[in-house]
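Hi everyone, sorry if this is the wrong subforum. Our group has a chain we'd like a structural model of before ordering constructs, and none of us has done structure prediction before. Sequence below.
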Amino acid sequence: MWYFITFVLGAIIGSFLNTVIYRLSVEGLTLWDPPYSVCPVCKHRLSWKDNIPLISYIILSGKCRYCGSKIPVRYFIVEFFNASFYLVTSMLVKNILSLVSLWGIFSSLLAISFMDIETYSIHDGLLIILLIFSLLFSCSIHNLLYGSISALVGFIFFFTLYKLKKGIGFGDVLLIGAAGFSMDLIRLNIAILIAAASGIVYSLIAFKGYKPKKTIPFTPFMSVGIITSIFLMLLQ
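Answer:
Right subforum, don't worry. Here is the predicted structure as tokens:
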């Protein structure tokens, strides 16, 4: 029952993350106005049966019930990955503070990644939430000093790359500074290596060795590196 609850909770929060990603990406919208969900295309108010995480997307075949417009697959992906992460971590982590902190870190990174993909920007509020949960996770697994050192080293390294114009945006600098508290120096290095490797592999596959014609958001690859590094630590 506990695992079922964590999966459902993850799906529900994933649904909220989709709202966060969309509303923070559109100028003039806020998280509380309007206080209900609407179709981005026809602006029709959605009923409860249109907002059931995962299930509604499948039943509606990925289309708005009222205008037939295609619902971005991102909605299903975010809900599924968030629910799956909550489920898996609930099986691996028994300390409630560590568990809740991990959920906060992953959900923050998930929202940040998709927002960066869609808008090439990161909202400051999401970075603050990531920082808070990273600090909590650091306190729950090791001395806060280790996390502080990792955060500082990661920030300085990425800030240097940013100043040298090595394809790093300042949002990436702030991201590693906030998430760095959740890792020690070894995990930080692993996260950066995984991020760099996954970014290179993606570029080779997507652009077949040619120089991309547009900027590639690095935040999703950093998120993959951070989460993978933390998972490797949990599996030890």
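For your construct planning: The CA atoms of residues 191 and 226 lie 5 Å apart. The longest helix spans residues 2-25.
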